[in-house]
Amino acid sequence: MVRNVENLDKLVDQLCNDLDSINSSLLAPWQKLDAIRTFIQPCLTFALHAGEPLKSSHFNYRKKLVEVVRSIMHLPTRASSCIIFASRKVGGLAFQEPLVEVDIQTVVQAIKMVSSSDPFVSSIAKAELWSSVRFAARDNPSPSLTRDFLSGSMRGNFHPNRIRYRTHSLWTRTRSACQRLNISFAVPDNDEPVISTKTSGPRRAKVGCSFLHHLAQECASQKLLDLPDQEKQPEL
User: Fold this and answer.
1) pTM of whole model > 0.85?
2) Is the dihedral of CA 64, 68, 69, 70 positive or negative?
3) Percentage with pLDDT > 70 across the chain
4) 18, 108, 158, 223: which one has the fewest Cβ atoms less than 10 Å from its Cβ?
5) How far apart are CA 3 and CA 216, in angstroms?
6) Can you give the residue range of the structural domain that contains 65?
């Protein structure tokens, strides 16, 4: 079914209903999980390209997703949700974490705009970005200052006591998203924009989405492995 993505909060409610329908269907468990991956997740990801739903909608959808997947897998309610979002390499299901997906798509949209092959689009995007940096830092937007702004730095001109915030925009949302994802976002003068982490090399817009999804899965995987009751063996 084709969904209307113009009203994101209404869309989330519809997706929650779809999750219930899949759960109550006569499909086999693996088919139910596959249906969620094939029809539900891409719909939300596509919708996030058009805007940002309310935080309450994020939590409601995540709660419903965890509830449905636990039911399909016959997991106890005490089972950590990390197994749902962790990589398959550690025994997880590798579903997209809805709260993280919002941040991922925000960063992806931002890096695609400043990396656009259309000079008109990229020039406007960079002009808006530099305007946001100039306003926040009260200084001319150099590449290093722009990187610090987008990466969520809290030092220097971006110290909480010095930074100025303007109205909600893609660039302020990108700053917050990079901060939560713990990534760096650079827009050099004479090279393509890139995102990176402390342990990985720079990634350009073309592979940005897959890179961030992998990063989110690795984070969930580590949380799963760090749980105190993992890998315990019953006493004989």
Assistant:
1) yes
2) positive
3) 90
4) 223
5) 26
6) 8-79
Number of domains the chain is built from: 2
Cα separation of 110 and 104, whole Å?
10
75 and 112 part of one domain: no
Same domain, yes or no, for 71 and 117?
no
Q: Distance between CA 180 and CA 193 in Å, rounded?
A: 19
Bridging pattern class, strands 200-203 and 194-197:
antiparallel
C-alpha torsion 106→110→113→114, nearest 10: -170
List Cβ<8 Å contacts ≥24 apart for 149-153. 149/175, 150/110, 150/174, 150/175, 150/178, 150/185, 150/186, 150/187, 151/175, 151/178, 151/179, 151/183, 151/184, 151/185, 151/186, 152/176, 152/178, 152/179, 152/180
Both 114 and 70 in one domain: the answer is no
User: Does the residue 92 lie in any domain?
Assistant: no
What pLDDT is attached to residue 6?
A: 58
- Spatial contact of 72 and 32, defined as CB atoms under 8 Å apart: yes
Residues 64, 144: Cα–Cα separation, whole Å: 41
The residue assigned the tokens 């990063």 is 215
